[in-house]
From TrEMBL:
<keyword id="KW-0614">Plasmid</keyword>
<feature type="compositionally biased region" description="Low complexity">
    <location>
        <begin position="414"/>
        <end position="439"/>
    </location>
</feature>
<protein>
    <recommendedName>
        <fullName>Toprim domain-containing protein</fullName>
    </recommendedName>
</protein>
<feature type="domain" description="Toprim">
    <location>
        <begin position="270"/>
        <end position="367"/>
    </location>
</feature>
<feature type="compositionally biased region" description="Polar residues">
    <location>
        <begin position="384"/>
        <end position="405"/>
    </location>
</feature>
<dbReference type="InterPro" id="IPR006171">
    <property type="entry name" value="TOPRIM_dom"/>
</dbReference>
<dbReference type="Pfam" id="PF13362">
    <property type="entry name" value="Toprim_3"/>
</dbReference>
<feature type="region of interest" description="Disordered">
    <location>
        <begin position="384"/>
        <end position="441"/>
    </location>
</feature>
Amino acid sequence: MAKPEIATERTRLSIPFDDRQRAIRAAGKLADGSNALDYVKEEKVWYAQPGANLSRLKEWIFDPNKVIEEPPLDIQAIEDEFTAWLEERGAIIKDPIEFDGQKHYVDTVDGKAGSRKGVYAAFLDGRPAGWYRDYKNGGEIQKWVSTGAAPNPEQMAMLRADAAARREQRAAAQADKFDQTANRLMEEYNRLPDATGDLAYLKNKQVIAANGLKADERGNVVIPLFNADGEFRTLERIWSDGSKHLEKDGQAWGSFFVVGGQLKDGDNLLYAEGYATAASISEAINQPVIMTVNAGNMVEVAGRLKDTFPNSTHYFLADNDIYKDENVGLEKATEAAELTAGHVLVPAFSNPKEGLTDYNDLHVSEGLEQVRLQVEGAINQMNRVDTMPTDNPNITDVNHSSTDSAAVADPEKAAPVASAPAAAEPEETAPVASAPAADEPVEAARWPAPLQLLNRRKPRRWPAPLQLPNRRKLCRCPAPLQLLNRNTPHQQIETAMMKRVIAPVILRRMPL
């Protein structure tokens, strides 16, 4: 009797849908009693586990050279057809199409490079199909169905196994390219001198050169970026004019730089996008700040660090791009906060105007002490809110440290946003339902000012002092927006105007 062939590693199989039960029975169990076959739902592909008897599974072992009966099906032709369809709709496709049913984000011809405002998903269930959405141009879903013949079950299984194999090969090739780039850049980085505060960009931003920064021969700031395991991955260069450049073929996604110290589990983790913002915050409060390079990467970095630091609270100090059509900084910070059960902070300016969006802008325009007061005040307030005992939904008190709240979508998952007082007067007013008169005097220290509601650029002033209800249901401000009178906290106030509030919405204090 021939000796059975035992799998020494996970072995990809091509099992048609109708054969799945027969294959499971043929494979049986491993020596430890576990199933010999494993189905990866995301890929819709079967694998034989190490220790499985491959002699029983020969008819299903994936062979990319296997010839299947008619009708012929060419995966490359399907890819080319879908790629052409996407490009006709403004998508920029640089990598092979992934037929895995997952969302894949791409740049668009109308969007900024790296913004990835397009998203597609492609499927191999039945006739190959997919969809595309361009968030830059309305975000409507457009659907695609292949014009070729629908694959039979055996072809379907082969296509899925082939797609999984190609994904694995591309991932390995990409990882190798990342490693080669990292090794080359590390050698270059080690040859550079340490940066000083005399560099033009740092002087303009009024920040110091943190430990680890370098300067190249052109006077550019050179910042090393590391992954969650502490491995060097790539460099970011900031020119004297403020323009930022990432190295080609470097692994920036998921990489970051820590300004002002080391991260410790149990300590607060503070995140900011750019170096200047992170440096201003770190210098103001004397704590390390994680620089994530951009808003999109903030979400990726936070997702990786939440497992590395399970006992830490996450604070995302957002760039509040309120003067742009899309507030990407606030949206991504909110997304990161949802992912980590964290908090979002935004700066408040005494004289808000276009161009003032982040904590470095606050540092330059109003001083480092104002950054400290706002950040420490907001964090302290959030700590009090998180520990406040109550049988009712969480109430966010507006006190002398003040709060800002802003976000953009699902109210059930929204994260709280906080900042210090804004001194700007509203541009216009609108009536709202007044709260019932209070029988007892208001505590001035706890309720120093009424709230101002900003709907993007149009402020609305509320004549009655207000109290925020459940912060997680309010932060993203879906219509109808609900506010409670501070003296009768169970009484709900609604107005027709409130029902038309459009996210993003920011709640700010105003001076009395």
